[in-house]
From TrEMBL:
Pathway: Glycan biosynthesis; starch biosynthesis. Its EC number is 2.7.1.4. Belongs to the carbohydrate kinase PfkB family. Gene3D superfamilies: 3.40.1190.20. This is fructokinase. It catalyses: D-fructose + ATP = D-fructose 6-phosphate + ADP + H(+). The lineage of its organism: Eukaryota, Viridiplantae, Streptophyta, Embryophyta, Tracheophyta. It comes from Actinidia rufa. GO terms for cellular component: cytosol. It holds the Pfam family PfkB.
Length: 329
């Protein structure tokens, strides 16, 4: 069952493909799941977070994926609509549940995950169920790697990428490694890399860089080992240390904003959403280092603000919040 659409924002359309789920976040940081006295229900799933990050900042986005036709699925579809994300690519599955994730918050705000997907609705999206007209209308098509783990969703993911690319979209990839979901470490690395050379914008965290390269060095040499000829921009996010950027012509580092971190969930999604929002109608930034640095400073600010509250979607900033942090610094 397909959904009907929501609100209107400005600029080229960014379509985000993949999973949306419920994160259960402990009410207390620094305890194990078993020790947590209670949990806060928070909508999540990296591609959905990115779609909402974009509309929060005034951009246009759509989400493509499948939810369970259950109370959580209806709630998540409602959250997309409330945030002006187009939902004409969202389906509800009557035979499967919406995915759940229990997230442990360590004392430093970093996370560990335990997932309930057996199988969840997002894993059951088929190629025939894709809204191809919506995908063809994307100026940027953004995705992760969780949708590559099992069939039929893997085939749907590959078809959606192909259709978007053929229609002229820029392909954006954030692998968003979640090892507990993969059958093995080897399978994770193999499938994450299987679509590597298709993307024109790739964002990896420092941990993902280590995982993919098999090296514990977070340096230019390690990052550039991931370069491929189709790539326009490679980003390595370094958490509270900022980010590194690499293009065909230049590379460098942009410092982070220092804030009181409560929960790092969604910070990377806010960062990539902000970047995509700023480049969707202006691809000349790949050749303009000063402008790119300005955009990455803005994206770093978005990521920083997102860490100051619990949960991803409630913490995603508006443009005015970002600009006040940038100006304040």
């Amino acid at each position: 069952m397909a959904m009907k659409n929501g609100g209107v924002s400005s600029g080229g359309l960014i379509v985000s493909f993949g999973e949306m789920l419920i994160d259960f976040v402990p009410t207390v940081s620094g305890v194990s799941l078993a020790e947590a006295p209670g949990f806060l229900k928070a909508p999540g799933g990296a591609p959905a977070n990115v779609a909402i990050a974009i509309t929060r900042l005034g951009g246009r986005s759509a989400f493509v994926g499948k939810l369970g036709d259950d109370e959580f699925g209806q709630m998540l579809a409602g959250i997309l609509r409330q945030n002006a994300v187009a939902v004409d690519g969202v389906l509800l599955d009557t035979g499967a549940r919406t995915a759940l994730a229990f997230v442990t918050l360590r004392a430093d705000g970093e996370r560990e995950f335990m997932f309930y997907r057996n199988p969840s609705a997002d894993m059951l999206l088929t190629p025939d169920e894709l809204n191809l007209d919506l995908i063809r209308s994307a100026k940027i098509f953004h995705y992760g790697s969780i949708s590559l783990i099992v069939e039929p969703c893997r085939s749907a993911h590959l078809k959606a990428m192909e259709v978007a690319k053929d229609a002229g979209a820029l392909l954006s990839y954030d692998p968003n490694l979640r090892l507990p979901l993969w059958p093995s470490v080897e399978a994770a690395r193999e499938h994450i890399m299987s679509i590597w050379d298709k993307a024109e914008v790739i964002k990896v965290s420092d941990n993902e860089l280590e995982f993919i390269t098999g090296s514990d060095q977070i340096d230019d040499e390690s990052a550039m080992s991931l370069w491929h000829p189709n790539l326009k921009l490679l980003l390595v996010t370094l958490g509270e240390k900022g980010c590194r950027y690499y293009t065909k012509s230049f590379h460098g580092f942009v410092d982070a904003f220092h804030v009181k971190t409560v929960d790092t969930t969604g910070a990377g999604d806010a960062f990539i959403g902000a970047l995509l929002c700023k480049i969707v109608d202006d691809r000349s930034v790949f050749e303009d280092e000063a402008r790119l640095r300005e955009i990455l400073k803005y994206a770093n600010a978005c990521g920083a603000i997102t860490t100051t509250k619990k949960g991803a979607i409630p913490a995603l900033p508006t443009e005015s919040e970002v600009l006040s942090l940038v100006k304040g610094a």
